[in-house]
Write a sequence for this structure.
């Protein structure tokens, strides 16, 4: 099943976006916070999680790994479905949510669309000692929720697909972009992408 999509934003709606990938439009349901970062014609990289309900298949999308992880953990809470989970992600960044759970602030959590007090209490009760998010979400700043450079993210994925460590690949790509003086977000230019990949691979080979 689809793990991610890289393509052009065709449309942005109230609760979803259509991502065109080589002529095929994928309807991806996303949080309001993520949708606010998208605009028509933009190149983007979206992490995806499929969800099957009865006879329908829906695709949920995320601009950060932390949001995807939080979505998955919310679905493990009894009685919480994807619609409510997306409502939580529309109201809070992963860092804000983690802080709410730590403080056991039921009232704050009920501000999420579609979530009542009982549901909020259940989420806090079940995730209080189980919530595990990527360490990058711990800082609590809005900047941490910003999507990665979509073209750079695609290059990192390509390196991981060739057997490189994800964290090291990200560091190598960032180093290459800085060393080559390439503006960010990176342009969708094959020549530029090739330069960055070549530099990144060389830097990792030297380190190995």
């Amino acid at each position: 099943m689809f793990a991610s999509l890289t393509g052009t934003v065709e449309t942005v709606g109230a609760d979803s976006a259509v991502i065109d990938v080589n002529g095929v439009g994928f309807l991806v349901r996303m949080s309001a916070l993520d949708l606010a970062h998208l605009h028509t014609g933009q190149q983007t990289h979206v992490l995806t999680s499929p969800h099957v309900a009865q006879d329908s298949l829906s695709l949920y999308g995320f601009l950060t790994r932390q949001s995807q992880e939080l979505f998955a953990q919310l679905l493990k809470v009894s009685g919480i479905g994807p619609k409510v989970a997306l409502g939580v992600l529309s109201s809070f960044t992963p860092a804000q949510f983690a802080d709410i759970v730590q403080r056991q602030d039921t009232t704050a959590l009920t501000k999420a669309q579609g979530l009542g007090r009982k549901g909020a209490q259940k989420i806090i009760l079940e995730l209080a000692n189980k919530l595990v998010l990527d360490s990058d979400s711990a800082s609590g700043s809005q900047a941490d929720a910003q999507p990665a450079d979509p073209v750079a993210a695609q290059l990192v994925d390509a390196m991981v697909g060739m057997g490189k460590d994800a964290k090291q690949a990200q560091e190598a790509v960032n180093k290459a972009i800085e060393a080559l003086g390439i503006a960010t977000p990176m342009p969708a230019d094959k020549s530029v992408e090739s330069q960055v990949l070549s530099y990144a691979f060389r830097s990792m080979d030297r380190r190995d």
Notes: The chain has a mean pLDDT of 85. The radius of gyration is 18 Å. The longest strand covers residues 43-53. The first helix runs from residue 32 to 35.
